[in-house]
Amino acid sequence: EEIYKLFRPMTAFPNAQTELLWLKNTRNLLNKCFEGNGVEQSIPSNEIGEVQEILKQRSDAKTSVWKSMKWRFSKEKLRLARILVANGLRDDKAALQVLTEKIDNRLNLQHQLTKLRSVGWIDSVPKTLLQEEINAWIDNLEMAINGKLRFNSFANFNEYFKLNKLSAKEFRSKIKELRESLEGLPAKRNKWNKYIEPPQIDKLLADEDFLKALRKSVKRDFETLCELDKLRDSFSEKELAIVDKLVDLHLEDKREILKIFDNSLRLAWIDHIESKSPILRTVSTLSFDKLISELQQAVEQKSEVSNQILLQKAKERTYEGLEFNRLNNMVTYRDLLHQVTKKRRIWPIRRLINSFYQELFNLVPCWLASPESVSAIFPMESVFDLVIFDEASQCFAEKGLPAIYRGKQVVIAGDDQQLRPNDLYRVRWEDESEDMALEVESLLELSRSFLMQVSLRGHYRSQSQALIQFSNDHFYQGKLSMLPNFEVANGNEPAIEYIKVKGEWEKQSNLIEAQQVVEVVKSYLRKKTEYSLGVVTFNAVQQGLVIDLLEEEGLMEEADLFVKNIENVQGDERDVIIFTTAYAPDAKGKFNVQFGSLNQAGGENRLNVAITRARQKVVLVTSISPSQLKVEDTKNEGPKLLKAYLKYAQEVSDKSIEMSLTIDKGFEPHWYLKNKLIDLESELPVKMKSDSLYADIALTRRNKYLGLIFTDDNSFYTSSSVKETFVYRPTHLSLKAWPYRLMHSRDYWKNGPNVKDKISRFIELVE
Fold it and tell me: Cα(85)–Cα(702) distance, rounded to whole angstroms?
């Protein structure tokens, strides 16, 4: 009866709230109160506080004579004596400590009992202070919980037994009736289990149509079922456990079962890897963002410190190993100082360097010189730790070799799609030898045959994609990676302005075009913009004409203005580059397809150099339209690419060509995170482009970019280093003012809806 009283109210609560482990811990806490001297039981609960105060007075009585006299004649002394007698204690210091401990145990016990009374599923808590009675009550409560767990394990018992209407006697009677009706069922079910899985038995008992279908299937597939049983018998225990779990899912679609099995294998593998390396779980936590921030700060600090260290080491070299004479005068640089300060019989620089190169290199460790100058002034020894060649495509191989000899290591940088060495006014020794190394022209070509090659694929000069796209397509096979400025990418002003004039080709120049160039220069100067300007012509005569006209207007004195022809513009850059092609029909309307150096072999490289000098904008002033150029039969590529560029510039200027940050993505696995995020597009107020050139996903709205999303897909794993992904790329994005977010696959499969919320918050932030 007592157990049923405890059992009935707790059946309305879930099993998670009625835990045996919690009850076991509670029992331990209650029994702990009875340890040591036990629990004080004579004092009424409402007087415990008064007794504690009396004990304090008893303790304070010994601190002064007055308090001792007052205690001796007080009523509390007699009350305390009675309590001590009730607990079998004498009136001494040790007994008072025992009484204090027993009262503390009493308070702890009452606190634990009060906590039990606050539990909603416990009907009544005993008021006794006896350990045996409390443990007996807990035993009953434990049996009630066990009964409740068994009761709830049957799905329909709450409907079958109306506990709120049944007494304990009636409940036992109904249990007895149910047991009698089910006595024969276990034996029958055991017999069925030999042939049918338990989930199938449950379904057979509930679905008559399934029973008919199963009978038909057994007759049809009996032999196959026998083979299946043999296969099952060969399974290990773990394999059988996996099969049983799949069967418990009650799935009939084979593809769905295989999908779940495959996914479970992946999850198990991930769990195994994360168990071995728990740090992998941090990508889904805020600590990962903190790690990224710390890495970025560390790299930035390293850059600053490295610069300081470099300067400090350069200073140290100047006074390292200084020598002084007996008068404490420095003698280390004395001879060098004499030679560079004397006024007569001045040494040639070659002799000076040969005599004092050690002292000079301590004072000036880094030198900038042409290959010819290096050969002329430095001794024929390995005097440099490192020799770096820039623009090596323009350096003759034989000019660079002497400089290489003077270094212990060499770095050769250049672009074979830009200008080659120019031997128009030089005589070169030609040998009849067929040695391949003697056939190359430039140092870059020579080094390619012997040294390791590293391609730099990032383009950082141009702020607009339109300025580099033509070269990327026609010269670099689309391998250049370029991120435009965020505002430029969303701007309406084209990066190339195409100005068509009715010019005339006369004496290797075009006056009308030159005049138009001057007007363009004047218009930019009138705007008082901070843009630097450069004018590029396609021949020297047109260059001279433009310079003359600009000088007449007094504009050549502008500090940020240059006028160069296509031959010598490599290495220069300006915010705005103004082109004048000069070529046009002559006075008779005849158009001659002769474009000077562009017609020569490698002439297309000159075009590539010229069209990539602009940072912000290109203004193309021309007298010819692409359709006028009949260059299909020309031998070299220069004229053909000129026609293609004129057409491209016209289309960009007219906004008839769309510049997008996209590439052909080819084949990608469907399980890429970015493909999963694309599936969320219908639930978000933006368009998602998964073929972005610089990011995994670009968010757009009304053909305007909102931001970029990066994932841990293939581009993440093909990055050259961790710093490229988490330091250099974020820095580049910030410089270009692009909003961006990082998304990780672990976030998606752990909490898919949370990923969608992250994207939504990002969209709200950038709008």
Answer: 92
How is residue 753 written in tokens? 């809806």
Instruction: Say what percent of the chain tops pLDDT 90.
Output: 19
Do 510 and 539 meet the contact criterion of CB atoms below 8 Å apart? no
Q: Coil, strand, or helix at residue 203? A: helix
Tokens of 330: 């420095």
Global model pTM greater than 0.70: no
CA distances from 450 to 418, 431, 434, 437 (A): 21, 21, 18, 10
Tens digits of residue pLDDT in 461-509: 888 888 998 888 888 888 888 888 888 888 888 999 999 999 888 888 8
Asked if 211 and 218 touch (Cβ cutoff 8 Å), the reply is: no
Q: Where are the alpha helices (DSSP H) in 11-161?
A: 20-32, 48-60, 65-72, 75-86, 93-117, 131-152, 157-160
Please spell the DSSP secondary structure of 545-574, one letter per residue: HHHHHHHHTT-TT-TTEEEEETTS-TT--E
Report whether 58 contacts 96 (CB < 8 A).
yes
Q: What DSSP element (H or E) covers 247?
A: helix 237-248
Q: Please state, in angstroms and rounded to a whole number, the distance separating the CA atoms of residues 462 and 484.
A: 7
Look at residue 205 and tell me whether its pLDDT is greater than 70.
Answer: yes
Residue 555, CB half-sphere, CA atoms under 13 Å: how many?
25
Strand order in the sheet with 704-710: 687-689, 697-701, 704-710, 740-742
Q: Which of 201-205, 320-324, 428-432, 577-581 has the lowest mean pLDDT?
A: 428-432
pLDDT of res. 164: 67
Strand order in the sheet with 561-565: 496-500, 614-622, 574-580, 533-537, 561-565
Inter-axis angle of helices 185-193 and 198-206, to 10 degrees?
120
Token output for 424 = 């128009």
Tell me the one-letter amino acid at 711.
T
- Cα 529 from Cα 525, distance rounded (Å): 7
Bridge partner residues of 708 (DSSP): 698, 740
How sure is the predictor about 429, in pLDDT bands with cuts at 50, 70 and 90?
low
Give the β-pairing of 697-701 and 704-710: antiparallel
- Alpha-carbon distance values, 274 to 268, 612, 713, 743, 746 (Å): 10, 49, 19, 19, 11
528: left (phi over 0), alpha (psi -120 to 50) or beta: left
What DSSP string describes 442-511?
A: BHHHHHHTTS------B--S-SSTHHHHHHHHHTSTT--B----HHHHT-SS-SEEEEE-----BTTB-H
For residue 704, what are the contacts with CB-CB under 8 A and spacing of at least 6?
490
Cα gap 653→157, rounded to integer Å:
80
Residue 629 φ/ψ, nearest 5 degrees: -85, 110
Q: What is the mean pLDDT of residues 205-219?
A: 83
Q: Residue 425: what pLDDT?
A: 43
Measure Cα distances from 652 to 411, 464, 466, 502, 689 in Å: 38, 11, 7, 21, 22
- Residue 301: predicted pLDDT: 94
Structure tokens at 357: 């190169």
Residue 398 CA: distances (Å) to CA of 65, 118, 450: 113, 96, 15
- Phi and psi for 740 in degrees, rounded to 5? -155, 165
Lowest mean pLDDT of 96-100, 153-157, 379-383, 647-651, name the range. 153-157
In sequence order, the β-bridge partners of residue 600 are none
Contact in structure between 688 and 677 (CB atoms under 8 Å): yes
Total residues found in the chain within this entry: 767
Residue 726 has, within 13 A of its CA and on its CB side, a CA count of 19
Q: Give the per-residue pLDDT at 244.
A: 82
Question: Alpha carbon of 342 to those of 333, 335, 355: distances in Å?
Answer: 14, 11, 16
